[in-house]
């Protein structure tokens, strides 16, 4: 196999496929970068992106190219290592054949799948927070939930308070009967005295 010819032909094919996404860094050995983005609206900032750097070895494609992720955006912890492990696995499966297009396609598929999962996780988290907020508002509206136990405790306390009130009223009534006095208008006694006096005068006459 003429390794140099294979490598030159692949680079030319990649330039026609990826155009602005491919940047040549060197030719001895062949070295270049390709920008990769998950499937989404390219006018938006959302999505996963990375730049893959490829360096051909002397006996590529019978040897794996040197792979490196030189830049990435919106990756979470562990994404870079997981993606690299996946791409090395794909490269090994294609050993002996030009493989850069296959690796880039696999990377784009991985990024798209991972981005879909990230969006799903975000939606679930948003739903969870919404439910928590609604539940909190519902608890505020309903107040303390009444259980059998709490109702019985309230009923017992109410009856005790009611019984005490009745006892207080009863004691107050009984106290009035034992110690209470009838108020008498003293002027009545004065009138009676005058009445007795008048009767005496009449008898004297």
Outline of the structure:
The protein is of the alpha+beta class. The protein has helices at 3-18, 79-93, 100-142, 148-179, 186-204, and strands at residues 22-27, 30-37, 49-55, 66-73.
Structural overview:
A hairpin with a 2-residue loop joins strand 1 and strand 2 (30-37). Helix content is 61%, strand content 14%. It has helices at 3-18, 79-93, 100-142, 148-179, 186-204; strands at 22-27, 30-37, 49-55, 66-73. It has a domain at 3-120: Roll (Ubiquitin Conjugating Enzyme), CATH 3.10.110. With 205 residues, it is of the alpha+beta class. Helix 2 packs antiparallel against helix 3. The relative contact order is 0.08. The mean pLDDT is 83. The protein has a 4-stranded antiparallel β-sheet with strand order 1-2-3-4. The radius of gyration is 49 Å and the shape is rod-shaped. The N and C termini lie far apart (170 Å).
Task: Outline the secondary-structure elements.
Layout lengths: L2 H16 L3 E6 L2 E8 L11 E7 L10 E8 L5 H15 L6 H43 L5 H32 L6 H19 L1
Antiparallel strand pairs: 1-2, 2-3, 3-4
Helix pairs in contact: 2-3
Strand order of the largest sheet: 1-2-3-4
CATH superfamily of the domain at 3-120: Ubiquitin Conjugating Enzyme
> Roughly what fraction of the amino acids lie in strands?
5-15%
Radius of gyration: 49 Å
Report the helical percentage: 55-70%
At the fold tier of CATH, the topology name of the domain at 3-120 is: Ubiquitin Conjugating Enzyme
Question: What attributes does this structure have?
Answer:
rod-shaped; UBQ-conjugating_enzyme/RWD; RWD domain-containing protein; alpha+beta; single chain; four-stranded antiparallel β-sheet; 4 strands; 205 residues; Ubiquitin Conjugating Enzyme; GIR2-like
